[in-house]
Automatic annotation (TrEMBL):
Keyword check for Transmembrane: yes
Superkingdom per UniProt: Bacteria
InterPro entries: Mce/MlaD, MlaD_Phospholipid_Transporter
Organism this protein belongs to: candidate division WOR-3 bacterium
Membrane spanning residue stretches: 7-28
Protein name in the entry: MCE family protein
UniProt domain Mce/MlaD: residue ranges: 40-116
Keywords from the UniProt entry: Membrane, Transmembrane, Transmembrane helix
Length: 252
């Protein structure tokens, strides 16, 4: 007898626990209202996309929760959202509906409502809404692309500046060695060739739209490799054969 009573108590406890859990979930999701039932009106809003919105999500009128999302269903490649809104809220034909994120990094959504001004509408009126949370994601993506493009533009500007400085150095080198009767044709030829490489790199930076594409360019990689190799060869040759670049004339 005691064993049967104990089994009945355990079964009753499990059933009550499950019931309480279901009630709590329903209450927090807005499917169950606690207290006196408030009068509400039903409205329908069509969206092109309701990504993130769920049944039971709050409906806020100018920042104050005044209703809940009750239903969502597909109709002709659009989504019709049905909301229950407090009867004290009077909507007009100019009312605006927008799905928004509760935070920039969270996934929770709510339906924002601006009652608008103009001619009042009756319950079951149909509105068109907008998913502003998706627009925010698109905006962030555009900002990322803009930053990438600005970085590429800055690199291009720096490269043009470096190329101009290199050309000035070549001209200065010519002027410096003139009094000594020095032959610097080979040195000048190599340095001018390097400046041409910088020109082609600048063109690449101007044409590419993002840093990712720029860094993945095989043409840019080969140009940098060739330029570096020429500089290394030039330095090595100057150290090994300085007479090729500096030839003092003692007699005319």
């Amino acid at each position: 007898m005691n064993r049967q009573l104990k089994g009945f108590a355990i079964t009753l406890f499990v059933i009550l626990s499950i019931g309480i859990f279901i009630l709590m979930v329903s209450w927090f999701s807005g499917l169950l209202e606690v207290g006196p039932r408030r009068a509400s009106n039903t409205y329908h809003i069509y969206f092109d996309n309701v990504s993130g919105l769920k049944i039971g999500d709050p409906v806020e009128v100018l920042g104050v929760i005044k209703g809940r999302v009750k239903k969502m269903r597909l109709e002709d490649n659009r989504v019709m959202v049905t909301v229950a809104l407090s009867s004290e809220i009077k909507l007009t034909k100019g009312a605006k509906f927008a799905i928004r994120s509760q935070s920039y990094i969270g996934s929770d959504k709510y339906l924002f409502v601006n009652p608008g001004v103009g001619e009042p509408v009756s319950p079951n009126f149909i509105f068109n809404g907008e998913n502003e949370s998706l627009n925010l994601e698109v905006t962030f993506s555009k900002i990322d692309n803009l930053i990438d493009n600005l970085m590429a533009l800055k690199l291009g500007t720096e490269l043009i500046k470096t190329k101009d400085e290199l050309l000035q150095a070549v001209q200065s080198l010519r002027e410096s060695f003139k009094p000594f009767g020095t032959s610097v044709s080979e040195l000048t030829f190599v340095l001018e060739g390097i400046s041409v490489k910088f020109d082609s790199l600048t063109d690449l930076l101007t044409q590419e739209s993002t840093i990712k594409e720029l860094l993945s360019s095989k043409e840019l990689y080969n140009e940098l490799l060739t330029t570096n190799r020429q500089l290394q060869d030039l330095i090595k040759d100057i150290k090994t054969n300085p007479q090729k670049y500096i030839q003092l004339r003692l007699f005319k």
